[in-house]
């Protein structure tokens, strides 16, 4: 490397090191308890194989290997997940004075507690799988749903994360649902409370907030928000129920927003696409957008043929 | 490992193995015909290089290698894709009694049939590339579009998947479009029938349903749904035309939803953003949202300065 | 391989090679200056570690390694990014006659110029991190935001890309923001001009156009479009201000669209969800959708219980 280049690099490094000393949140540098995102994704992958024993397998797999494979997966999960849980526990104020081996034992206890819940988890996930097949005429087989439906993937990862969340493990559940968000466009907070037979079709853009309560047999389409009315209160709103309650057998079509912690959508209701709802809806109600009239301008016919529309020529009446 | 820990793991494994015996869809365990998602993604990657010979190359590539490279790519695709097609065919009822070598020959025949269609495929994809460049003033070069436009990527993978779909190969086309969905946020069902010069700008959140018919020179923006009116009929609706027809030269702006199997958007129409359309529209019509009035509350000026809005203080009139 | 199979492959290769000769945009084959997407992603990853020194580290990291690590990262970035910048410069018309070493020196000069801006970049990114924490009651810690908020990731990558864009480096900034788009569903054009304390909650589906101007303390929710009114003019509109100006302290709720180069949203305004705005709004205004009335059909109660709704039975009034 030329001396000029080396000097430039050294200057840049010095500028950045100087900048690190400003003690802002971004300058945080304690690294000993860093979480390992790859380890968490690996835990998710192994859990998916455990949940769906016949779908996510390698070709070389033989059904006779069930016992051996499961033992191996569980061992790896116990090791990796305990380590990550240990890491997040050790930075909580209530564990500040606690010895490392005690924290590790507590982490392992939580992981075992979680693993004992797998049969319950599979029961929920099986209901979601059935809901997806029953609800979509484009679905050709159960296998297609497991292998190609992002909605089911997002729900399954949410269900895993939710169990860890109810065990009061911080941060890791959120990293899991964000992994799902990144892969599927579905953002379900692990704190949400969601019943059986839950289905999200087409998936992209769905948001379900932290304090949402959703019953059984609920079906959402792409772009649906189950959200808060306003978060201008910021951190002062922490812990309050800020998101709606959706009762059993409700269908919510694409692009609809249901907002507010006191909003309840009664059971057996159907919410039309693009609806915007901030008040409670009685059971058995069909809601659709009414006054969204369209302006039809049929004189356009020639103009588009003869010349480009200038931006000014294009009017949206509001 | 401590004995206590080993016992716990063994208990968990036993609980899960017991749970596998319940014979629900989730318990499905036949593994011999599993599809290999990585092999399918590899086929897509190689096809992208074949379709766009100058764009997806490694630095070390020399144009003189065209023949050798192509032969290699085609050989690998024939091998991998035939294997996957064999695997999906062998589980179809009509092949239940057929010998493995016969299925393999049929799979290879379909793959060759598909590969002979590459020039036709490139003709369509070239028209999509031109549509993207002509349609977006932010596009600086063709290369930018190939390398950085998720809309073109999603359309190209759809075009590959659609050819396999018309050859009646199950499941694999859906896995391909879901790979595109995951990378781009665009969910085009491989069954959709889409003309030349198709462009999707910004891409995220677009959904095009299985029985949609779309003409030439159609342009969609982010968040557009070409969908079904209701899928409450579930699996009973299978095979029916449930999605709209969009004729030539139609532009559909962001967030618009066009729904229903009998809805036809006439040629040369322009559909404004956030429109919600469930009826047919005559050719040459410009549609925009009309009665979506806004409530302006200018007294807010001081309040936002002096105090936070409580969630109750924030009103959406519906 | 059987001779029949080998012949088929040779035929297919010949058909494709023949097709490559048609000289359409898709047939472009000059490969010597290809960009390396993996190298660009690696540059982003290293920059994220430099920007957030305490968050993206490996477990094995020790804070005492700061100097050595930084030097290493900077050296790798100088090498890889200069190579990519060289590659894009060399195909610009103004460099057509320029010698390779001159282009390489210019590329390296631009990369050093960029790296000197890292402290300024960290100042902006720190303000974004604070905005995210202050603005979201669901956020439990700064660390959760860095590790699990796609909005912050998208903004950070945009900020990197924007610096390269202002240095007039073509294509690479767009590849960077598209990498962010693919991971987060947020599509911010590197040309947009965005102030400090910028926050995007839930992220998916946000689009911010090339000529947008956004002030300080602006907060967006999922599905917001800051877009152009019409791009029917296509390449003829290149360079014009086509996207809105959003002044300081504006909050824009989910699904809202703000369109047009002359549209200005005055400071301290609040734009309600699903709004559709193509005209300027005075400072301190609260905008919400007014006439979007809902049609409630409570007679549905029995029907959903007793029979499936046929698609015809489902009415959206428009």
Automatic annotation (TrEMBL), chains A, B, C:
InterPro entries in the cross-refs: LbH_SAT, Ser_AcTrfase_N_sf, Serine_acetyltransferase, Trimer_LpxA-like_sf
The organism of origin for this protein: Schwartzia succinivorans DSM 10502
Name assigned to this protein: Serine O-acetyltransferase
Pathway: Amino-acid biosynthesis; L-cysteine biosynthesis; L-cysteine from L-serine: step 1/2
Gene Ontology molecular-function annotations: acyltransferase activity
GO BP, one annotated term: amino acid biosynthetic process
Source domain of life: Bacteria
UniProt entry keywords in alphabetical sequence: Acyltransferase, Amino-acid biosynthesis, Transferase
């Amino acid at each position: 490397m030329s001396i000029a280049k080396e000097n430039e690099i050294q200057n840049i490094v010095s500028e950045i090191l100087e900048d690190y000393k400003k003690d802002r949140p971004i300058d945080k540098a304690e690294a000993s308890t860093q979480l390992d995102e790859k380890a968490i994704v690996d835990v998710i992958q192994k859990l998916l194989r455990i949940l769906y024993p016949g779908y996510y397998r390698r070709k070389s797999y033989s059904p006779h290997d069930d016992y051996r494979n499961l033992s191996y997966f569980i061992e790896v999960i116990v090791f990796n997940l305990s380590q990550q849980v240990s890491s997040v526990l050790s930075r909580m104020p209530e564990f500040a004075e606690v010895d490392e081996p005690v924290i590790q034992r507590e982490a392992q206890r939580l992981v075992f507690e979680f693993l004992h819940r797998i049969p319950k988890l599979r029961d929920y996930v099986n209901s979601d799988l059935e809901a997806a097949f029953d609800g979509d005429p484009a679905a050709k087989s159960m296998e297609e749903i497991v292998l190609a439906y992002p909605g089911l993937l997002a729900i399954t990862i949410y269900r895993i994360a939710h169990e860890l969340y109810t065990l009061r493990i911080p941060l890791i559940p959120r990293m899991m649902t964000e992994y799902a968000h990144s892969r599927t466009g579905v953002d379900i907070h692990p704190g949400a409370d969601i019943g059986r037979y839950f289905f999200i079709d087409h998936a992209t853009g769905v948001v379900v907030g932290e304090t949402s309560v959703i019953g059984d047999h609920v079906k959402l389409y792409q772009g649906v928000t189950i959200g808060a009315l306003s978060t201008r209160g910021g951190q002062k709103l922490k812990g309050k129920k800020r998101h709606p309650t959706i009762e059993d057998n409700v269908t919510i079509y694409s692009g609809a927003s249901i907002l507010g912690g006191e909003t309840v959508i009664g059971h057996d209701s159907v919410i039309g696409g693009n609806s915007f709802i901030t008040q409670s809806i009685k059971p058995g109600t069909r809601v659709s957008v009414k006054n969204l009239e369209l302006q039809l301008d049929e004189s356009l016919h020639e103009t588009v043929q003869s010349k480009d529309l200038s931006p000014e020529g294009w009017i949206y009446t509001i």
